[in-house]
Amino acid sequence: MDVHLVVAPVFATNCTVVVQDGDCVVVDAGAGVAATVERLVREHGWTVRAVLATHGHVDHTWDAAALCDAFGVPLRIHEADTYRLADPFGTLGLTGPGVSGALVQALTAQGLHADDYRAPSAVVPFGAEADDDGTLVAGAVRLRVLPAPGHTEGATLYVAGDVVLAGDVLFAGGVGRTDLPGGDPAAMRATLRDVVGRLDPGLRVVPGHGPTTTVAHELATNPYLGG
C-alpha cells in the first residue's frame, strides 16, 4: 500500500492519496488540492473509490465536493461529524478574529471565498465499526478505522499499511486542540491514552498539518503522551 502526500496551500493541510492495486482513496481534501490530486490520479491511471475525511473541519473537507464530483464517488466521514458539512464556518463557532478569521484570510490569499464552499452531494457516513469490524473497504483499499474523539466528536484515525493518518488528533510534538465546538478535553485524553498510546510504534504518522513523524518518536518525546 502506497501513500502519496499533497499539501494544501490553505493551512498546509496534509491530503493523502492511499493506493492499493490501482485503486485509491483521497483523505482530507483541503482547500486547493483538487487540481493536483486529479492530475496525480490521472497520470498514474488510478481509480478513485472514495474521498475520506479524518474529521469535519472545513480545512480538511473544502475540496471534497470537487473531487467527489470529478470521480463520481462519495465522501466517507464518521457519522458524528456529518453535521459540519452543511455549515462549515458556523460549526467552528467563531467569527471575526481567531480560527475563522485566519481561515478566511488564508482562503482569500488563494483566491477563494467562504461563499465558494460546496458540501459534497453524496455522503456515506460510517459509525464506530466502519464497514466490516473496524475496516473501511473501498475497492482494493482496506483501512483500519479507529474512532478518536476529542478534537471533534467524529475524529478518526485511518491506518493504511504501515502509516497512520492522524488528522488533527496527533502532530509532531503536539496534539489537536479541544477548545472549538465539539472538542472535549476528557475525550481527547482518553483517545491519547487508549487509541494513540496503543498504536504500533513502528507506524509512520501523517498528521493533519505539519511534518510527518513516527508513533515511536511521539510516544518517547511528545509531552502530551507522557514522553
Automatic annotation (TrEMBL):
Q: Give the protein's recorded name.
A: MBL fold metallo-hydrolase
Q: Which Gene3D superfamilies would you find in this protein's record?
A: Ribonuclease Z/Hydroxyacylglutathione hydrolase-like (3.60.15.10)
UniProt cross-references to Pfam families, sorted A to Z: Lactamase_B
Q: Which organism is it from?
A: Xylanimonas allomyrinae
User: Taxonomically, which superkingdom?
Assistant: Bacteria
What residues does the Metallo-beta-lactamase domain cover? 12-209
Requisite cofactors: Zn(2+)
Q: What UniProt keywords apply to this chain's record, in alphabetical order?
A: Hydrolase, Metal-binding, Zinc
InterPro entries attached here?
Answer: MBL_Glyoxalase_II, Metallo-B-lactamas, RibonucZ/Hydroxyglut_hydro
Question: What GO molecular functions are on record for this protein?
Answer: hydrolase activity; metal ion binding
